């Protein structure tokens, strides 16, 4: 059952303000903290200013690809509720979780079934499982049938080329949360009209169930 969404890759105050104050704001808002390859990356000085807002009903997520101690120390006092972590071992995530006292979204990039079964190793260190494509910043898709019958005791977030106007009922039996970034953009920039359509459609679906 879909409970809500994450809008990822926010990097400007205007878009953030629009999302936070939307009648149906996302449960999570994600910020790219240490992956300069992404056009949505935000440098630390800019990130600190960007996060200096009232969150209202949303929770902030630091998106981190194999973070080192330097970046973790730099952002430790920022107003993040979750760390979304790619490419770390269970022991590395356990250390981060304990030291920085953040809830964890463990991200798995999926190409085949062997990528999916890795989730079993992260049960003790994960609050939410995120299944994403191998595209990282490129918004590629993957075969959702690979996770369709997965049994988890925790919540599942789904990313990977989900579009603002998709029939989100198609994801109801797969995910608890949908994670969108490129699917809410026009020419590489977040598009408020697409965000508005998606959040309104999601709210309708949630109220139907």
Description:
There is one protein chain. The protein has 209 residues and is an alpha/beta fold. The protein has one domain (4-208): Aldolase class I (TIM Barrel). Helix content is 26%, strand content 22%. It contains 6 helices and 10 strands; from the N terminus they run E-H-E-H-E-H-E-H-E-H-E-E-E-E-E-H. It has an 8-stranded parallel beta barrel with strand order 1-2-3-4-5-6-7-8. Strand 4 (82-86), helix 4 (90-100) and strand 5 form a beta-alpha-beta unit. The longest helix is centred in the last third of the chain and has 17 residues, at 192-208. It is globular, with a radius of gyration of 16 Å. The model has no long low-confidence stretch (mean pLDDT 94).
Q: How big is the Rg?
A: 16 Å
The chain-level mean pLDDT equals 94
Instruction: Determine the CATH superfamily.
Output: Aldolase class I
Tally of discrete structural domains:
1
* Stretches with pLDDT under 50, minimum 5 residues: none
Taking the sheet with the most strands, its summary is: 8 strands, parallel, barrel
CATH T-level fold name: TIM Barrel
H/E element sequence: EHEHEHEHEHEEEEEH
Shape: globular
Strand order of the largest sheet: 1-2-3-4-5-6-7-8
Brief write-up:
The chain has 6 helices and 10 strands, in the order E-H-E-H-E-H-E-H-E-H-E-E-E-E-E-H. It is of the alpha/beta class and 209 residues long. It is globular and about 40 Å long.
């Amino acid at each position: 059952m879909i409970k809500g969404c994450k809008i990822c890759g926010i990097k400007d105050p205007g878009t953030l303000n629009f999302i936070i104050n939307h009648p149906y704001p996302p449960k999570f808002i994600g910020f790219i903290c240490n992956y300069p390859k992404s056009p949505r990356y935000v440098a630390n000085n800019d990130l600190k200013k960007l996060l200096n807002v009232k969150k209202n009903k949303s929770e902030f997520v630091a998106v981190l690809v194999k973070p080192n101690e330097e970046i973790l120390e730099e952002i430790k006092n920022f107003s993040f509720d979750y760390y979304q972590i790619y490419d770390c071992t269970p022991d590395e995530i356990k250390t981060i979780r304990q030291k920085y006292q953040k809830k964890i979204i463990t991200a798995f990039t999926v190409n085949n079934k062997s990528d999916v079964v890795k989730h079993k190793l992260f049960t003790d260190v994960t609050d939410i499982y995120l299944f994403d494509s191998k595209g990282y910043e490129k918004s590629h898709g993957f075969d959702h049938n690979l996770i369709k019958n997965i049994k988890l005791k925790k919540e599942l977030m789904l990313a990977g080329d989900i579009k603002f106007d998709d029939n989100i009922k198609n994801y109801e039996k797969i995910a608890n949360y949908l994670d969108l970034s490129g699917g809410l953009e026009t020419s590489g920039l977040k598009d408020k009209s697409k965000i508005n359509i998606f959040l309104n459609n999601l709210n309708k679906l949630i109220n139907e169930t």
